[in-house]
Design brief:
The chain has 362 residues and is of the alpha/beta class. The protein is built from 12 helices and 15 strands. The protein has 2 domains: 193 residues, Rossmann fold, CATH 3.40.50; 159 residues, Rossmann fold (3-Layer(aba) Sandwich). Helices cover 32% and strands 16% of the residues.
């Protein structure tokens, strides 16, 4: 099939550190190419792929040169123009339009968007189906008017739990995100430390992870991004506990850097307090044989096999108690859970089946 993959352009593909939507788009693209499909990837400059690559911007937003990114807005008397930093929305519109122009000319059998709502408004203007993977985008209420206006278009949820945000959409399939499992080697022999991996944001539960580790008497390693809007939270709730002994912050790690930390952890603490639509960390950890202690939010009950690959808890007190029962969980079961449900191959097969259904090629 001729497939257009419309990727996010905040990070190049594959992303070097953070960039979960880009990572999923990359894994899917590479696997579809391996399956023999003719894939055109629309992505930011610096991306690498086995597909046909169309770079629609010279850089990804998050890797744009600082001199241009931080350029002040000011009037240039010589040119008469208002100068300033790049306009991200304008660049994203050009990114989308480049793909849609080729689609309008009949270049593709299907267009697959990973771009929130921003490509959706072109769906009725092209001759092929536009598939939109939500990636949690319906969590944002201000986007609902656009989603509702195009509710009949085919949407893909990345978990069944994601559908609760906007149940009236036309959900054509649920396809779980998939990882390249070879990047996460299995390890059955664990050390004593616990791990928090993810954005250090209130809804992700890093402060709760510190509390659980402290009360359980375990060392906690923490890895993840500190976003500008959460710097005050980090300063007040996380930083005072970082002592390099019981609590150690490793910074933002790439997948390659994080994999060995997953491998030796006794468990990953995933104590979120919002309906997270998926959770790549939960899959990556299990791939290495490491179980989870997680709250009952979002997709986590779908990802974890209770009592086999982790514990889904109702309170922090229960999370502390479950730390003492980690020896009852099976590293081999964790690995098998990912091998059977959450690989890039499984994800590609799910999307391939949907593409064929939507184009009458089933």
């Amino acid at each position: 099939m001729r497939i257009a993959m419309l990727a996010p352009i905040s990070w190049p593909l594959p992303p070097g550190g953070y960039g979960p939507w880009e990572l999923v788009a990359h894994n899917l693209t590479e696997e579809l190419v391996r399956l023999g499909h003719d894939v055109t990837l629309f992505a930011a400059g610096g991306s690498k792929t086995a597909a046909r690559l169309v770079e629609t911007s010279p850089y990804a937003f998050e890797t744009w040169p600082d001199a241009e990114r931080n350029r002040p807005r000011e009037f240039d008397r010589q040119s008469g123009l208002l100068e300033g930093p790049p306009d991200w929305r304008t660049l994203e519109q050009l990114h989308i339009a480049t793909c849609m122009q080729q689609a309008a000319e009949g270049a593709f059998d299907v267009v697959h968007s990973h771009l929130h709502v921003h490509a959706l408004v072109f769906a009725r203007l092209i001759p092929c189906p536009l598939v939109s993977t939500l990636h949690g985008a319906t969590w944002v209420r201000s986007a609902h008017p656009v989603f509702r206006a195009y509710r009949e278009m085919p949407f893909v949820s990345i978990s069944n739990a994601e559908r609760q945000f906007l149940p009236e959409l036309n959900y054509a399939a649920t396809v779980y995100n998939g990882i390249r499992i070879e990047n996460f080697p299995f390890e059955s022999q664990k050390e004593d430390y616990l791990l928090f991996a993810g954005r250090l944001a209130p809804e992700k539960g890093p402060a709760e992870a510190i509390d659980v580790a402290r009360r359980a008497g375990r060392r906690l390693l923490m890895a993840g991004m500190i976003e500008p809007q959460h710097e005050d939270y980090f300063t007040s709730r996380i930083k005072p506990h970082i002592d390099g002994k019981q609590v150690e912050y490793l910074g933002l790690l790439s997948q390659k850097e994080l994999a060995p930390v997953y491998r030796k952890a006794a468990a990953v603490l995933f104590l979120i307090n919002w309906c997270e639509p998926f959770g790549l960390v939960a899959v990556e950890a299990q791939a290495t044989g490491t179980p989870l202690i997680a709250t009952r939010f979002g997709a986590l009950p779908e990802i974890i096999l209770e009592g086999q690959t982790g514990y889904v808890v109702e309170s922090l007190e229960q999370a502390v108690e479950r730390v003492s029962h980690l020896d009852r969980l099976s590293p081999e079961a964790c690995r098998q859970n990912v091998e059977s449900r959450f690989t890039a191959q499984a994800m590609a097969r799910g999307y391939e089946s949907l593409y064929r259904k939507l184009t009458g090629q089933a």
